[in-house]
Amino acid sequence: MTTKLAYAIKFVDDMDAAIAFHQALGLALRFASPEWSEFDTGATTLALHKASATSRAGTCELGFEVGDVDRFYADAVARGVAPVRAPEDLHGQRIGALRDPDGAAFSVGGKPAH
């Protein structure tokens, strides 16, 4: 099973200001919305996500792409990785979340369940 770093997700308070800042760095905007925007950066996408009470502005989250999200999630939990959110179909993908030893959440995603 291959695990690939697919997303670096940065939580922001002001989406418009964050988009303008990253464009000023020379990043190419893929698309923008009030809650989620993406920049092309090569193999890994930089995503801006609207901050919330649980995901404060200025924090980041990694997003990994895996072949079988449910299997990866179950295997990781069985090996002692802390679960955050069981896999579910969201936004055209299958996405779950886990927590690393330092307490940082990260997501795993892939094709939706059939």
Give your account of this protein's structure:
With 114 residues, the chain is an alpha+beta fold. The chain has one domain: 2,3-Dihydroxybiphenyl 1,2-Dioxygenase, domain 1 (Roll), CATH 3.10.180. Helix content is 18%, strand content 47%. It has helices at residues 15-24, 69-78; strands spanning 3-12, 28-31, 36-40, 45-50, 60-66, 82-90, 93-99, 105-110. It has an eight-stranded mixed sheet with strand order 2-3-4-1-5-8-7-6, covered by helices on one side. Strand 6 (82-90) and strand 7 (93-99) form a beta hairpin. The radius of gyration is 15 Å and the shape is globular. The relative contact order is 0.21.
Topology of this protein?
Blueprint: E1 3-12, H1 15-24, E2 28-31, E3 36-40, E4 45-50, E5 60-66, H2 69-78, E6 82-90, E7 93-99, E8 105-110
Parallel strand pairs: 1-4, 5-8
Antiparallel strand pairs: 1-5, 2-3, 3-4, 6-7, 7-8
